[in-house]
Each structure stands twice: as structure tokens, then as C-alpha cells.
Amino acid sequence: MTKVLIIDDDPGVRTVIRQALEDEGIDVVEAEDGRHGLDQHADHRPDLVITDIIMPDMEGIAAILALRQRQPDIPVIAISGGGRLRNKDFLEAARRMGANRVLPKPFDDDVLIGLVKELLREPASAA
Questions:
Q1: pLDDT at 127
Q2: Distances from the Cα of 89 to the Cαs of 9, 55, 118, 122, in angstroms?
Q3: Residues 71, 46: Cα–Cα separation, whole Å
Q4: For the chain, which residues make up each domain, given as ranges?
Q5: CA distance 122 to 85
Q6: Model pTM?
Q7: Which residue in 50, 57, 64, 102 is a FRET match for 92, CA 20 to 30 A apart?
Q8: Fold observed for domain 3-119
Q9: Using DSSP, how many helices (H) and how many strands (E) does the chain show?
Q10: Other residues' Cβ atoms within 10 Å of the Cβ of residue 52
């Protein structure tokens, strides 16, 4: 079964994403910040990671960099609701640091599911 790790400090966001993914038959693991996300990655070895950018303790960009060191080919979707202008900067930084796709909050569940499916279909080297 496909497994996705969601890293976001907002439990409501995690719940919405979890429900959308589980409706697609995807197993979900959650973490409230980058540090816990890295722990969950080590414990569960997900097929894909969705991470927020702005979080306490360890932000998403640091988590992306650490994930790339551990598992260079894991697909990563970065999400952020950091404000209209700042959001674009955060997401562009995430893309430069290794996120395969970026998505500003709020987003439509169908868009997120489409990105997840697209990345899971791509060969690891192309992701």
C-alpha cells in the first residue's frame, strides 16, 4: 500500500489532507514539525512526503534538505500558507531546495491528489 507522510504544524490541515488521501486508498503517517517528520520517515519509510514550510522546531526547508540526504529520490510536495507574497518566496525556496512540486494554501483537495498521483507514477529519477 502507498504511504504518504504529512508534515504540518496545523492539525486541521493534517486532518483534511489525511482524509483526502485515505479516500484514495493511501496510507497516511503524520508529524507536527520537521524534526518529528524525520523520525516518522525513519520509522515508516513513506513513498512520498507533503510538508509545510513554516513550522516551529524544524521548518520544512530544513526537513526537505534532510530528507534529500537520507533518500534523494523521495518525491516531496511543499505546501505553504505564508501570505500572498511571502508564500511565493517560501515555495520558490522549497523548490530550489529539492521539493518536486509546490502548492500554496489553501488548495483544492483534487489538485493535491493529482500531484500525489503524478509524482507516484513518475520514475524516481524523474521526480
A1: 45
A2: 19, 16, 24, 26
A3: 10
A4: 3-119
A5: 31
A6: 0.92
A7: 57
A8: Rossmann fold (3.40.50)
A9: 5, 5
A10: 27
